[in-house]
Amino acid sequence: MKRNVTYEPIVKEKTLIERNDSENLYQVKVKLQDGTLCRVFYNHGEKSISRLLTIPCPICRKDFICKCLNRFADQIDSQVNLPEMLAE
After folding, report:
1. Residue 4 falls within a domain, yes or no?
2. pTM for the complete prediction?
3. What average pLDDT does this structure show over 58-81?
C-alpha cells in the first residue's frame, strides 16, 4: 500500500562535517524543521541522504533505516546550497 506523501522538508541547521576536495566528496549534517537529523552525502555530484536514527522517519514512521528522505534529496540539497558552504 503506497501512501500519499505530502512531506515538506525544511532545513533549519546545516554543518559541513567532512570535506575532501581532491576526491570531490562532502558530508553535511542537516537538522530539519521537524527535528529529523540526517547526513547528506555528495559523491562526485551524486547526492544521497542517510537519516540519523534519533527519531522515527517522518514519512514512513519506521524506527530503523529507510531511504524515504532520498526522494527529497533535490529539495534538501537546494536548501543546503553546498557551493555556498564550500566558499565560506
Report:
1. no
2. 0.86
3. 92
What does each C-alpha distance from 5 to 21, 55, 63, 83 come to in angstroms? 36, 18, 18, 29
Q: What DSSP designation does 72 have?
A: G
Q: How confident is the model at residue 13 (pLDDT cuts 50, 70, 90)?
A: very high
Residue 52 CB neighbour total at 10 angstroms: 12
Domain membership of residue 3 (yes or no) is no
51 is a domain residue: yes
